[in-house]
What does this fold into?
Amino acid sequence: MSDPIQPQPTPEFDTNAPGATSGAAPADKQTAAADLNAQLQAALAESLQTKDALLRALADSENMRKHAQTDIANAHKYAIEGFASNLLPVKDSLETALADNASTTEQIKLGVDLTLKNLTAAFDKAKLVELNPLNQKFDPKWHQAVSQIESDQPVNTVVLVFQKGYLLQDRVLRPAMVAVARPKGAAATQGEKPVESKGQ
It folds into this structure.
């Protein structure tokens, strides 16, 4: 007679073993997804803020550039504003003198002298310097020699000023037109040119 069949024990599963499923897994995945979504939204918000700040910076830079261009254009456009303002009294004086039919010659002369002083003051404010090189050594940077004159003065000394010159700051606005000395008895050769000026 065979032995009776013994019942087999039911296998027990370790819920902590790898690969075992747990009822809490879906909740963990939802939490992780929510965290990722929150991080994504924060990153997008930060990106939008950065973009807005960049656009504002670019707009400010463009405005500054336009303002700078306007300032430069105005500086060129109104560069002589101060000088022009200083010339207005000179014009007023000249117009007054022309309209005056009662003044004597002496009074008119005094008026012209005052007008010249006003003009000289305007030149001084504009750093416009007069070149009157009489009895000075000829300098081609500032003077233009148009003739030579026999003289006891050293050779190339300015002995006659036909037209005064002017400097604006340190730049020649107009060279002085002069005659320079040559030794007595040393006649200029035919076709000889006066000393050339380099002031222009």
Remarks:
- The beta strands are 128-131, 143-150, 158-163, 165-168, 171-174, 176-182.
- The longest strand covers residues 143-150.
- Confidence is low (pLDDT under 50) at residues 189-193.
